[in-house]
Design goal:
72 residues, 3 strands, 38% helix, three-stranded mixed sheet
Length: 72
């Protein structure tokens, strides 16, 4: 599975500086979502990321919410 990810992954070497989250360790995740214009940021981090609800145009949602969206 990891080798498959490597073949299909996009590598972003330059990320924007982000200081949006209470937990500074989460800021690189937000930077990636911003830079790649992610459709969704899926997380289980209720305390910090999920409480933000959105970063730029990217909704921040739980895995359960994501599965509900894609279960059409």
């Amino acid at each position: 599975m990891v080798n498959g990810l490597k073949l299909n992954a996009l590598v972003y070497e330059m990320l924007p500086a982000v200081d949006l989250c209470k937990d500074p360790d989460d800021n690189p995740i937000l930077a990636i979502a911003i830079e790649c214009k992610a459709d969704f940021l899926v997380t289980g981090d209720k305390r910090d990321l999920l409480s933000m609800e959105r970063v730029n145009n990217t909704p921040i949602i739980s895995a359960v919410a994501f599965l509900t969206l894609s279960a059409f």
